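Example record for the data management plan.
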Amino acid sequence: MERLTARIGMRLMTGDEHSRDLDVDWSYRPDDPYAIDLDFSAFQADTVWTISRDLLTAGIHSPVGDGDVHVAPFDDSRLLIALAGGEGVALLAASVAEVDRFVAATAELVPAGSEHTRIDWGGGLEGLLAS
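Corresponding structural encoding:
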Protein backbone atom coordinates (compact mmCIF):
# COMPACT_ATOMS: atom_id res chain seq x y z
CA MET A 1 0.00 0.00 0.00
CA GLU A 2 1.27 3.43 -0.90
CA ARG A 3 2.01 5.75 1.98
CA LEU A 4 3.28 9.28 1.67
CA THR A 5 5.53 10.41 4.50
CA ALA A 6 7.54 13.52 5.23
CA ARG A 7 9.33 14.94 8.23
CA ILE A 8 8.27 18.55 8.70
CA GLY A 9 9.91 20.81 11.24
CA MET A 10 7.44 22.50 13.54
CA ARG A 11 7.87 24.98 16.37
CA LEU A 12 5.95 24.35 19.59
CA MET A 13 4.97 27.82 20.78
CA THR A 14 4.80 27.96 24.57
CA GLY A 15 6.49 31.28 25.26
CA ASP A 16 10.00 32.45 24.48
CA GLU A 17 11.71 30.43 27.22
CA HIS A 18 9.88 27.20 26.51
CA SER A 19 9.33 27.18 22.74
CA ARG A 20 11.08 24.32 20.99
CA ASP A 21 11.61 22.88 17.56
CA LEU A 22 10.09 19.48 16.78
CA ASP A 23 10.58 17.13 13.87
CA VAL A 24 7.12 15.76 13.17
CA ASP A 25 6.45 12.82 10.86
CA TRP A 26 3.50 13.56 8.59
CA SER A 27 1.87 10.65 6.77
CA TYR A 28 -0.97 10.05 4.36
CA ARG A 29 -2.54 6.79 3.22
CA PRO A 30 -4.77 6.64 0.14
CA ASP A 31 -7.00 4.06 1.89
CA ASP A 32 -7.76 6.75 4.53
CA PRO A 33 -8.01 9.60 2.03
CA TYR A 34 -9.54 12.30 4.20
CA ALA A 35 -6.88 12.18 6.93
CA ILE A 36 -3.30 13.24 7.52
CA ASP A 37 -1.48 11.89 10.56
CA LEU A 38 1.01 14.01 12.51
CA ASP A 39 3.25 11.74 14.59
CA PHE A 40 4.83 13.45 17.60
CA SER A 41 6.20 10.20 19.08
CA ALA A 42 9.80 11.44 18.90
CA PHE A 43 8.75 14.20 21.31
CA GLN A 44 6.03 12.40 23.31
CA ALA A 45 5.56 8.63 23.07
CA ASP A 46 2.51 7.34 21.19
CA THR A 47 1.24 10.80 20.29
CA VAL A 48 -0.37 10.93 16.86
CA TRP A 49 -2.92 13.53 15.79
CA THR A 50 -5.15 12.88 12.80
CA ILE A 51 -6.13 16.03 10.95
CA SER A 52 -8.51 16.48 8.05
CA ARG A 53 -6.74 17.03 4.73
CA ASP A 54 -9.48 19.51 3.78
CA LEU A 55 -8.92 21.44 7.01
CA LEU A 56 -5.19 21.78 6.31
CA THR A 57 -5.85 22.79 2.70
CA ALA A 58 -8.32 25.49 3.75
CA GLY A 59 -6.17 26.61 6.68
CA ILE A 60 -3.31 27.56 4.40
CA HIS A 61 -5.49 30.41 3.09
CA SER A 62 -7.73 31.42 5.99
CA PRO A 63 -8.48 30.50 9.63
CA VAL A 64 -10.55 27.31 9.95
CA GLY A 65 -11.45 24.70 12.52
CA ASP A 66 -13.93 23.69 15.15
CA GLY A 67 -13.37 21.65 18.25
CA ASP A 68 -9.89 20.27 18.92
CA VAL A 69 -8.08 21.42 15.77
CA HIS A 70 -7.70 24.92 14.36
CA VAL A 71 -5.47 25.97 11.45
CA ALA A 72 -4.63 29.50 10.30
CA PRO A 73 -2.03 31.29 8.22
CA PHE A 74 0.21 33.40 10.44
CA ASP A 75 2.25 35.29 7.90
CA ASP A 76 3.54 34.64 4.39
CA SER A 77 5.76 31.81 5.55
CA ARG A 78 4.13 30.16 8.57
CA LEU A 79 0.99 28.19 9.30
CA LEU A 80 -0.35 27.88 12.84
CA ILE A 81 -1.96 24.66 14.03
CA ALA A 82 -3.67 24.56 17.43
CA LEU A 83 -4.33 21.13 18.94
CA ALA A 84 -6.53 21.00 22.04
CA GLY A 85 -6.39 17.98 24.31
CA GLY A 86 -6.79 16.93 27.91
CA GLU A 87 -3.54 18.60 28.90
CA GLY A 88 -4.32 21.93 27.25
CA VAL A 89 -3.66 23.48 23.84
CA ALA A 90 -0.49 23.00 21.82
CA LEU A 91 0.18 25.81 19.39
CA LEU A 92 2.48 24.78 16.56
CA ALA A 93 3.99 26.70 13.66
CA ALA A 94 5.06 25.06 10.41
CA SER A 95 6.35 26.27 7.08
CA VAL A 96 3.43 27.06 4.77
CA ALA A 97 5.54 25.94 1.80
CA GLU A 98 6.32 22.54 3.34
CA VAL A 99 2.73 21.89 4.38
CA ASP A 100 1.44 23.03 0.99
CA ARG A 101 3.92 20.70 -0.79
CA PHE A 102 2.84 17.78 1.38
CA VAL A 103 -0.88 18.43 0.85
CA ALA A 104 -0.30 18.82 -2.91
CA ALA A 105 1.52 15.47 -2.95
CA THR A 106 -1.49 13.83 -1.27
CA ALA A 107 -3.70 15.25 -4.03
CA GLU A 108 -1.48 13.56 -6.62
CA LEU A 109 -2.24 10.22 -4.94
CA VAL A 110 -5.94 10.95 -4.36
CA PRO A 111 -7.35 14.03 -6.11
CA ALA A 112 -9.71 16.19 -4.06
CA GLY A 113 -13.29 15.10 -4.65
CA SER A 114 -12.39 11.47 -5.41
CA GLU A 115 -11.71 10.38 -1.81
CA HIS A 116 -14.95 8.37 -1.61
CA THR A 117 -13.69 6.04 -4.35
CA ARG A 118 -10.74 4.96 -2.18
CA ILE A 119 -12.70 3.88 0.89
CA ASP A 120 -13.48 0.21 1.46
CA TRP A 121 -17.13 0.73 2.41
CA GLY A 122 -17.91 -2.99 2.49
CA GLY A 123 -14.96 -3.81 4.74
CA GLY A 124 -15.84 -0.96 7.07
CA LEU A 125 -19.43 -2.15 7.31
CA GLU A 126 -18.30 -5.71 8.00
CA GLY A 127 -16.04 -4.43 10.77
CA LEU A 128 -18.91 -2.54 12.38
CA LEU A 129 -21.26 -5.49 12.19
CA ALA A 130 -18.63 -7.84 13.62
CA SER A 131 -18.15 -5.64 16.71
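Summary line stored alongside the record: The helical segments are 53-59, 96-109, 121-130.
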